[in-house]
């Protein structure tokens, strides 16, 4: 089955942790993930600026490793990311900000990518919504 | 055929960017000519309350964006009748006249009708 996965909660939220576990289980079960889309506070999952206490799970690091290892399409909503200060190099330059929080394997793009993934997938699975 | 998507908007307009960001998904879908529905549920019905004063909160008013929904081709608009009643809003004075009031039972059928659902 083809899954699209949307994450709406911050990196420290249990629902974001569940999203990663679900994604790992989907691939382990032989399914396909057409795209991971991070929206609202979900954009923090892609932030390399998050520092997690040593005895806690570093979810942004785990997401990076997971997406890189499986060469998944990890898209972060650009409008939501800008609003929350989660910029990649290009956006930091565009808006003249010092801090760059997002790099590879993440891509900053628009909401069209969420719709595109929802159209392509058999199931859209959301984590951390209201 | 394009898959249909229902957005369930559950957050009040002034509790954070949630309501605006839910609406942005709807507008983006409308711009792509996708079959999109929008249901206001729970505190989301406050988005339809009349006479809001966004300026008092130094925020931007969401209601103008809501009025633009039909222009974006989004005509499937729904509001939970129970949520409206529970919050003491006048169901005849909601800012989105085209939104159809639904009972809990009708909402169950509505969700069933859509291919994908996002709740925000």
TrEMBL record, chain A:
Principal localisation: cytoplasm
Encoding gene (name): dsrE
NCBIfam families the UniProt entry points to: PRK00207.1 (NF001237), sulf_tusD_dsrE (TIGR03012)
Family stated for the protein in its record: Belongs to the DsrE/TusD family.
Gene3D superfamilies per record: DsrEFH-like
BP GO terms, sorted: tRNA wobble position uridine thiolation
Keyword list, A-Z: Cytoplasm, Transferase
Protein name (database record): Sulfurtransferase DsrE
Coiled-coil segments: none
GO cellular component: sulfurtransferase complex
Keyword Cytoplasm: yes
Automatic annotation (TrEMBL), chain B:
Pfam families named in the record: DsrE (PF02635)
InterPro entries for the chain: DsrEFH-like (IPR027396), Sulphur_relay_DsrE/F-like (IPR003787), Sulphur_relay_TusC/DsrF (IPR017462)
Domain of life: Bacteria
Membrane-spanning residues: none
PANTHER family in alphabetical order: PROTEIN TUSC
Recorded family membership: Belongs to the DsrF/TusC family.
Protein name according to UniProt: Protein TusC
Gene responsible for this protein: tusC
């Amino acid at each position: 089955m083809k899954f699209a996965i949307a994450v709406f909660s911050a990196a420290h939220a249990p629902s974001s942790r569940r999203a990663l576990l679900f994604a790992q289980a989907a691939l382990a079960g032989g399914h396909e993930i057409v795209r991971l889309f991070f929206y609202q506070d979900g954009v923090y999952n892609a932030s390399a600026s998050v520092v997690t206490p040593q005895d806690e799970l570093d979810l942004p690091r785990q997401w990076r490793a997971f997406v890189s290892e499986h060469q998944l399409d990890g898209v972060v909503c650009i409008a939501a990311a800008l609003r929350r200060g989660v910029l990649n190099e290009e956006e930091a330059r565009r808006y003249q900000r010092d801090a760059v929080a997002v790099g590879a394997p993440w891509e900053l793009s628009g909401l069209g990518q969420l719709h595109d993934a929802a159209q392509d997938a058999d199931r859209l699975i959301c984590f951390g919504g209201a | 055929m394009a898959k249909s998507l229902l957005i369930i908007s559950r957050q009040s307009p002034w509790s954070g960017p949630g309501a605006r960001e839910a609406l942005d998904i709807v507008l983006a879908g409308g711009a792509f000519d996708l079959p999109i529905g929008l249901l206001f549920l729970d505190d989301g019905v406050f988005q339809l309350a009349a006479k809001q004063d966004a300026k008092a909160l130094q925020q931007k008013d969401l209601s103008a964006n809501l009025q633009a929904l039909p222009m974006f081709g989004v005509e499937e608009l729904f509001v939970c009748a129970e949520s409206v009643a529970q919050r003491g809003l006048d169901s005849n004075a909601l800012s989105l006249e085209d939104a159809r009031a639904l009972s809990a039972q009708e909402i169950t059928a509505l969700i069933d009708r859509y291919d994908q659902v996002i709740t925000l």
